[in-house]
Structure formats: C-alpha cells, structure tokens
Design goal:
Layout (H helix, E strand, L loop, with lengths): L2 H14 L14 H16 L18 H12 L6 H11 L1 H11 L1
C-alpha cells in the first residue's frame, strides 16, 4: 500500500471512530505533559464507560513501550496484553514452536 493510500484510509477511520480513538503523539511532548494528557484522557473518556480502553503503544525498539504500558496498566487498573510475552510463554511450553520462531527471527 502506498503511503497516500494509507493516509486516506486513516482519515476515514478517524472520521468514523472520532469519539473512540484518541491519538497522543508523545515524541514532541515532555514526560509530565504526556502523563497529564493520558491521565485526563483515561479518566474523562474511557474509565467511566462499561468497556475498558484499548491502548496501543507504537515506537522503535528500546523506546520504553513495555515499561510505560506496565506502569499505566498498574496505575489505572487495566489489563496488560503483551504479544511479545505471550509468544515467549508459548515458546517455553512448546519447543517445536521455539525452533520455528527462532528460524523466522534470523
């Protein structure tokens, strides 16, 4: 998919789910501003609803996605689902899967 196609799709998604999706670009903000904005968003928009929020952290390796997700889940009483941890747990239980995944990662 070409970038402009993805951008058009994203605009449609944003329009449809404008009340359910909240974007926060943290790369331009300091830590305190990010924490305050996230706290305001969670308390105001999501924690008062019957359905819990689904938060997706994006960033390069080593950017602290997992660390921040763990802190936020503990602070707000949310369930943390880490695909990486789920895969590692399955690799420990299933040696055949471990061999297959290691081949894919090489």
């Amino acid at each position: 998919m070409v970038y402009w196609e993805q951008e058009q799709h994203q605009k449609k998604i944003d329009a449809i789910f404008s009340k359910q999706i909240y974007y926060l670009a943290c790369h331009e903000l300091n830590r305190n501003d990010v924490a305050a904005d996230l706290r305001r968003m969670l308390k105001g928009r999501f924690l008062q609803r019957s359905r819990p929020p689904q938060i997706l952290f994006l960033g390069p390796p080593g950017s602290g996605r997992t660390s921040q997700a763990e802190k936020i889940s503990q602070r707000f009483g949310l369930t943390l689902v880490s695909p990486e941890k789920l895969i590692w747990e399955q690799m420990v239980k299933n040696p055949g899967l471990r061999v297959h995944i290691r081949k894919l990662l090489q």
